[in-house]
Amino acid sequence: MNNVCPVVGEREVYAPVCYRSLYGLCVGDKMRIGNEELTIAGFIRDSQMNSMMASSKRFLVTKSDYERIKNQGDEEYLIEFLLKENTDTDSFADDYKKAEMYSNGPTITKPLIRMMNALSDGIMIFVILLVGIAVLLISLLCIRFITALGVEQDRKEVGMLKALGIENKHIRLLFFSKYILFSFAGAVLGFLDAGILKRPLSQKLRELYGVSDKGLFSVATAILVCILIQTVILLFIRHVLKKMEKMSTLEALFSPQFVTYMGIGDAGIRMDVRQSENIGEITGKLLEELGTDPDVLKYVALKTVSCPAVLSDGSQVNLIVETGNHSVFPVKYAEGKQPEKEGEIALSSLQAQDLGLHIGDMLELIHDGESRPAVVCGIYSDITNGGKTAKVRSLTSGGNADDQIMWSILYVSLKDGVHTEQWMKKYTCYGVDIVDIAEYVKGTYGPTIKQMEMAKLVAIGIALLIIMLVVMLFMRLMIEKKRYHISLKKALGFQNDCIRRNYFINGFIPVTAGVLGGVLSGNILGESICGQILKSFGAYGFHFVIRWEHVLLILVILMVTAAAALNLGTSEVKKIKAYECCVRKE
């Protein structure tokens, strides 16, 4: 955590930093592996496995402790390569496979590691960036209202200056100087507020990635960005003031379905059979047991093998192919459908993009020395196992050769009323990894969801403040423009409440249209924007599951806020005197 290599002692362990906040771990806590008890001596960052989306996590122990506890589990090896610049990673992976080197897992590349981090912590950064852009654009709208209001209030003085022969550019400079002062004060306050909010918003990022040693550079960059934004604002003010001279003297993860975007079936329980020499035998026993289990509603076994494939141009690649009945727990298909018969293959979106294949394209699958043609029948979303996978019904007419299985996964749905944890305990004797998929998603996306909750609350607070400010300025500007007419009405005997009610109704109509348009466009355009971002990461065909009761609640909150702002804005009517129409007639 201090950017130095940790030194671990006997019976000590360094845990991944991502687990510290997730499980509330502290230095000195005890950790048990089988019969061995270790003491947490600290926490480590891991550039390859920081993200909760990474399928593995590493703990650091001494060599002697490792030798003592390794017999209580199965060893897993990571074979890593640092390639020269511009090396084709897919070609290298093919060469590695052809050399018949040890390979019993997915191929993970540096871009995929970046992708996993982007899909977790990057989403938080993206949300903050979008909120920042929205605030800037709305700030420009507020500035337009403020400058227009200022000009309306100083209309008489501007007229006098023009009557005295003072040029427009000098009058504009007079107003511009005032707004430069206001803008500078706002920039300083914004910069200080950013410094205060930076620590809580970036706490998770500092834990996972450390603190940059470019402190002065970061400050300088922030100042330059601040100057750039101020330049945009001042240019906008100048444009508004120039325009005034033409006047007379004056806008859901939902849970169980989200896993289908991760390449996981929408089941209740997932059982992984890996790191074993008899994967096929264990899978067969589990299938027999599940077939006679009265608590099981439906189940399926999907076996993964490495299969060479020949493309139309004659090039050969190795595919990670998942075989089995994919219609039991289907994943989300962006195009086409799942493979339902021999001769059909579905590709993950990243795999299809990498190979340049589309629906209807052909390739040759080589299995057991035989070449079989296959047509691409579907493209699905998958961000697991490196994001590059394929699905077929079967590779051989007589079933799949168990001795070639890399791993197998069994998906299970239980009947209503069955206690999930107790059911899972019955199958621990098989030595397989059993996980509740709801907990799997929570463990994978839990930290991201917490960050999104914080970002959501901040965004809601900002939205309410913006609505309050914009609507209030809008009403004040409208009333200021009609100041003479309001004064005349008062002179004719109209009461304040009657005048305010009239302006409240007139303002409520465009405000309602704006709120409705903003909420609807947010639900419609938000899906396409997030979909395009996630599509680049492999989550293809992304859709929101909109909870309309939440949308209705948001509408009510926004409308109540807007109504309160309208009420405050129309209070300016009280300050207008009945005699003003006699002394300020234009």
Structural notes for this entry:
This protein is α+β, with helices and mostly antiparallel strands. 51% of the residues lie in helices and 15% in strands. It has helices at residues 17-23, 63-69, 89-98, 110-153, 155-163, 168-201, 203-209, 215-244, 279-292, 349-355, 420-426, 437-481, 483-491, 496-535, 548-570, 580-583; strands at 12-16, 30-33, 36-44, 269-273, 296-310, 316-323, 333-336, 344-348, 362-367, 370-380, 390-392, 407-414, 433-436. It has a six-stranded mixed barrel. It has a three-stranded mixed beta sheet with strand order 1-3-2. It is elongated. The termini are far apart. Residues 247-254 have low confidence and may be disordered.
Helix and strand topology:
Elements (H helix, E strand, L loop, with lengths): L11 E5 H7 L6 E4 L2 E9 L18 H7 L19 H10 L11 H44 L1 H9 L4 H34 L1 H7 L5 H30 L24 E5 L5 H14 L3 E15 L5 E8 L9 E4 L7 E5 H7 L6 E6 L2 E11 L9 E3 L14 E8 L5 H7 L6 E4 H45 L1 H9 L4 H40 L12 H23 L9 H4 L3
Parallel strand pairs: 1-3, 6-11, 8-10
Antiparallel strand pairs: 2-3, 4-12, 4-13, 5-6, 5-9, 5-12, 7-10, 8-11, 9-10
